[in-house]
Structure formats: structure tokens, C-alpha cells
Amino acid sequence: MDTAASDPTGTATADDEAARDALVGRLFEAALGTFDLAALHIGERLGLYPALAEGPRTAPELAAATGTAPRYIREWLEQQAVTGILAVDDTDAGEDERRYSLPNGHREVLLHPESLAFMAPVARLMMGMAAQTPSLIDAFRTGAGLSWEAYGADVREGQASMNRPMFANLLGPDWLGSIPDIDARLRADPPARVADIAVGGGWSAIALARAYPKIHVDGLDLDPSSIDLARANLATTEVADRVTFSTRDAADPGLAGQYDLATIFEAVHDFSQPVAVLSAVRNLLAPGGSLLVADERVAEQFTAPGDAVERFMYGFSFLLCLPNVLVDDPSAGIGTVMRPSVLRRIATEAGFSRVDVLPIEADFWRFYRLVK
Ligand SMILES: C[S@@+](CC[C@H](N)C(=O)[O-])C[C@H]1O[C@@H](n2cnc3c(N)ncnc32)[C@H](O)[C@@H]1O
């Protein structure tokens, strides 16, 4: 890089120049990553990957199979091949004769919604959040919030689809299976009742019902569109007779019921009134009942630079979760980076007698058991 032009004062050290060049490279890589996510989002929304999974296609064939415009599809296919997500049989063939295919090793990542390797929804989520940037710039000036509803279907569905594989594969056998008394109660008679609070797209409630064939699960969420999504997801399963979904504010002290277990997955940091929610949930617990909370596995304290989990969570925080909670005034205004000490304080203020951190291994979440 031209040092004289970028450092007119001539004070840059060799370390400064190395740091400058590293940042240039890092931002260039981030731009490439952003293009990959945008292309993935388009491919996912238009059903291009399932069509390619049926067999290699030329651009005109893929366009015809998916009801899309051939010239756009040609550009998309070329981008996907150049970036290494798709394979191409003969780069020298004419632009409409080349055949593109989905490598076997990429299928699970792009097409299998219950695989732990499924990453396709991250694109929908990221693009949906980024679409709100103009409103967010205003919000940074005014302090106003942006509602979960305002982020729209891409964020709602992307978030639900991102968590679905963990619930489908780990919630029953690994997570609850490692808590012997809860696991035993969920298998016993009379059938246990579980309240799944802030249930979003409903996959956790569905996974609970699948893992424990006797239990009944009531899922609730403040957001009506999330409950519509949860009901649509439930309709595709075989557990619809043991799961209900309703639109409710979990902070409502009028919530009624008697539950052996309550769960809150990745949502305590999203509550504008977390103490009110945990108090209301505490009142729902039968004697001996517990609340299981899973929230972000962020560090105990702020440190910088942080690791990938910390960076990931701060990204979600400024772009989504903090604006969501600031919709309400007053608001606890927590945001995605909820340190364990914050959860302990909220739980104590809500009247829970004990907060145990559970020895469950998970890359992104920490598990807490709140005892009534
Ligand atoms: C990050 S999503 C998590 C959804 C789901 N638990 C999952 O893991 O996929 C957070 C959810 O909290 C819900 N939420 C926020 N405040 C709430 C409240 N006061 N009562 C009920 N749900 C609430 C939002 O509508 C949103 O669906």
C-alpha cells in the first residue's frame, strides 16, 4: 500500500502498517463472506439448491425448473462455482452449456433442516437483520427500539431454523437426559406438563414432545407471527395432540397453570421485563418444579478482543436483540451478551432460591437450572 498517501504525517510505525494491512485484508474477506451469504439467501429462497440436488443443471435448465430468470440464474451459478459452493463440469463450455452440481459434502449444510451441520438459515437471518440497518441508524440516534415483528419473516424463520437442529438432536437425549430427576419426571406418570416460554417457531416444544412420549407441552410467545409459524411447524409433526401454542406475554402475572418443568431457550436476554417474566414463570411451577434456562455462552466478564462466540453475540446484540428490548420503556435493556452474573441477579430478584449452572457442553449456550 502507498504509505505516503495513507500516512501523511509520516508517523506510522511498521506495527501500524502491519495492523492497517491486516484490517484491509480482514474487511475484504468479510466482504467476500457477505456476498456468499447474500447468494446463499437468494438460492435458499428460490429453491435453487433442492433443484440442483436432483442432478447437475445448466443455467437455462435450473431457471426452467425453478421458474426463475435465466440471465440472473447464470450469474448466480457462476458466482456459486467461483466461490466454491457449487461444482462445474467444464469451465470451457459455453455459458449456457456448463453443468453445475451440488457437491455431496455440501448437501447436509444446505438442505437437511435437522442436521447439526445445517447452516443455510444463517444467511436468511443475517440478510434479514442487515435489511433493518437504515431503521437501526435512526434508532442509534433516537434511542428507539425495533420490534421483533418489524424484523420480519426472514429473521423469525431464520432464527427458528438455526436452533431447530440442536433441539431435534440434543434437547432430549443430551441436555435433559443429563439431569436425572427431570428426565425421570418427564418419563413418569402422571404425565408431566412442560411450559416452553418464548417458544418462537416452536421447535423446542416439538422436540420435547418427541423425546418424552407422555408429556404435554404448552408453548407461548409474545409475537403472534411466531405463534403462527410454530403452529404451522407443529402441523407437519406427529405430536400435535400433545403440544399447544398460544400468543401470550410471559411477563403477565395472570399466567395460570401448574408445570413440572418450564424452559426458556435463548430468550431471557430478549425480555424487556426479565424479572417480571421469571416471577410469572416461577408461579407456574408445581412444588419441586424447575426452570431450565439456556442462554448465550458469553464470557463471565467483558474482555477485548473477545473470542468468536463473544463476537457472534455482540453482532446479534447491536443488530437485533438490543433494539428488540428497547421497544419497551422502561426496559432492562440487556441484549444478547447476558453475563451469568446478570442472570443470577434477575433470578434472585424473581424469587428463585438457587441458580445452578449445569455441566452441559454446548458451543453457544450455557444452561442454568433455577430452583423454586
Ligand atoms: C431469540 S427468540 C427464541 C425463540 C425460541 N425459544 C428458540 O430458541 O428458537 C426470542 C423469542 O422471545 C420472544 N419474547 C420476547 N419477549 C417475550 C415476552 N415478554 N413473552 C413471551 N415471549 C417473548 C420473542 O417474541 C421471540 O420469539
Description:
Helix 4 packs across helix 5, helix 7 packs antiparallel against helix 9 and helix 9 runs parallel beside helix 11. The chain has 15 helices and nine strands. It starts with a helix and ends with a strand. With 372 residues, it is of the alpha/beta class. The chain is globular and about 70 Å long. It has a seven-stranded mixed beta sheet, with helices on both faces. The structure holds S-adenosylmethionine. S-adenosylmethionine binds next to helix 9.
Give the gist of this structure.
With 372 residues, the chain is of the alpha/beta class. It is 51% helix and 13% strand. α2 (14-45) packs across α7 and α4 (59-66) packs across α5.
Topology:
Blueprint: H1 3-6, H2 14-45, H3 48-53, H4 59-66, H5 70-82, E1 87-88, E2 100-101, H6 104-111, H7 120-130, H8 133-142, H9 148-175, H10 180-187, E3 193-197, H11 203-211, E4 216-221, H12 224-235, E5 243-247, E6 259-265, H13 274-284, E7 285-296, H14 308-325, H15 340-349, E8 354-357, E9 365-371
Parallel strand pairs: 3-4, 3-6, 4-5, 6-7
Antiparallel strand pairs: 1-2, 7-9, 8-9
Helix pairs in contact: 2-7, 4-5, 7-9, 9-11
The structure holds S-adenosylmethionine.
Unreliable runs: none
Strands of the widest sheet, in order across it, are 5-4-3-6-7-9-8
Radius of gyration: 24 Å
**Outline:** globular
Q: What is the CA-CA span between the terminal residues? A: 62 Å
Structural class: alpha/beta
Q: Give the biggest beta sheet.
A: 7 strands, mixed
* Tally of alpha and pi helices: 15
| Series of secondary-structure elements, N-terminal to C-terminal | HHHHHEEHHHHHEHEHEEHEHHEE
Number-wise, the strands total 9
Query: What do the pLDDT scores average to?
Result: 96
Strand content: 5-15%
* Share of helix, binned: 40-55%
Bound molecules: S-adenosylmethionine
